[in-house]
Predict the 3D structure of the following.
Amino acid sequence: MKTLSLSILIAALAFAQQGEKIFNQTCATGYCHGVKGVTGGAPRLAARGFDQAYINTTIARGIPGTAMPAFGNTLSRSDLAAVAAYVAGLNGVAGSAAAPSAKPLSADAARGHELFFEATRSFGRCATCHEMNGVGIPVATPIAAVPDNVTALRALATPQVRTAVIDGETVPALLISEGKRGTILYDLTSAPPVQRSLDPGAAKIADGSNWKHSSAMASYNDAELTAILAYLRATVQK
């Protein structure tokens, strides 16, 4: 059984790498969608809330009247599926590019897995800011400790969120880098968080923020969050 699980894991990782390789060869150039679909001449792909069906159709058929070509006749079915799974991962959609859990999930944890990545919640899903098993959008740092219960989850402190003042506007921010070349941060004012690149001195950063993690969980009720916690306990490395 362990050998079978390992074989499935290796196959899933290889599939994910295949999709990323194809994307990098055909879509990641500066005049196209850019590395990881974040920045380029074409529209951003990451964190757009696209569901799997839309991604599959767009890659296969293209978008008439734009520079987005149809790949349905130029890529094999395997390559189409791999790159579609990769783009889905950039949007926090759990798909075949996700590595399976090393052990079977309980019913509650399996439900939590579905809720964590549920595309119908659009940007209200956990995967908008959190990556698990290679799927999701790694805005926040990897989850290292799972809260004991829903009350603790809703009250979760976020000391890494800071306050940025940009052109007189105060925004909650996750700082990516700050130096002589400028400041890069995630603006948490709205979902999904927006990555902003600012000139040196354009942002004044202060510790602390009024932003609350609970504000990002409004689409979930207590029972759903309990299931998500069960999934995290079964998945997060101890």
Summary: The beta strands are 131-132, 135-136, 161-166, 169-179, 182-187, 194-198, 203-206.
